[in-house]
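Weekly puzzle thread! Below is a chain. First person to post its structure in token form gets bragging rights.
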Amino acid sequence: MKSLFFSCLYLIVYNNIIAQSPTFISTNKASSDIEQMIATFEKVHYNPYFKTTKQQFNLKKNELLDSWAKDSISLKQLMVTGMKLSAMMSGGHSNMYWKNAKIVPEIKEHFYIPFTGKLIDSSQTFIVTKSNIPDIQPGMEIKSINEISIVKLFKECMTYTGGIDAFKIANIERIFPLYLFFNDALQAPFSIEIYKSDEILLTKGLNINELLNFVNSGQAQVDYSFEILEQGIGLISYNNCNNYKKFNKFLKKSFKIIKQENIDKIIIDIRENGGGDSGLNDLLLSYITTKPYQQASGRYWKVSEEAKKAYSENKVYSRMFGKKFMNQYMNTPNQEVIESIDTTGLTHPKNPKNYFTGKSCILIGSSTFSSANFLADAVKTYNITTLIGTPTGEYTNDFGEQISFTLQNSNSTVYISSTLDIGANGNDSIMEPVYPDIEVETDVLEYAINWIGKYANKE
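Winning reply:
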């Protein structure tokens, strides 16, 4: 069970929260919260310093804390510090969450830039991908905001979240305006400099309600969908590994239509799939392969009192991993590691009615994460079908089973991974994402449609 903790859709919650506390905290209490967070990481996370040394981490921590005022700091500054430090210990599933009820007044009063975008060209260029005003269009290159380099602003935001750079860029792209809220160097109104243009665009920015409508527009509204493209190609958009029974019904219905319509080419799009229940992947694969495979080869469980509490309070763990294993975990001394290696062998798909025998491919990208990354890894390792797109947003060996806790003084929520999942090939030393068989950076679906059509015609 793996899930992506972050979704911009959660922004809507803020409309219903009432501020209860001031937005400042004493420096002593803020420092205590940071120490609590780090201590909990060290107890819960399998390897909190896998990206850095503890010495380097402490140097960064001291640098950040030394910048604080002696008496009190803003809650926002505490959260920025917590986000930066947790990101240094994160593969993407661990973080200090930016949502805190105490900063709601600032969020509601703030004004936000009216566009978002991403870094390209080895992170040296910022390109607009979505805009709320006609003067700025997708594809435009922005140079600066209020005379501050937008590349510098984006890279600062990248320090707020963990994971590999491709995941960070995709994650920040969705709600770049909100991430900029935490950077006090940038305030409305905004003067926006377009690359290779003498014109400076001026805007007051978006208020919180306008921002909500903007960032949520065009988001995937369903976990999975099926459609028949004009070329007679079936397209399954698999956006979330959520609800096993519902997905099973969806697949039965979709592949029944595929059979009835004599469709012999299907594209499965998991580029926006951030994870969930990996068991759904087995349902999907049973329709397109007879090859034995495994999505992961094992798991290292770090035992801690915090994880024991989280597991015991969530019955899903006993259902998924069995009472016997959960009893073993609860009776294992804290700080030990249980190596849960798969000894049952490979998964042998039991092909359902309307099993698909045609040509298929799967689209992947930087937002393919968590359980969706498991699926891509299995497909790649066992050569089940062709992967098209860009590398996934996570390593094949990655940290999972996220638990959460609340910091004592600020009430900030922190998420920490409690396991290390070993990829499909069983090599726990590999730190790489899943690479596509055919790398395509733009117009991926269009490429896949042409590719699968030409391939089928050749056959």
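Puzzle host: Confirmed. Bonus trivia for everyone else. The first strand starts at residue 24 and ends at 26.
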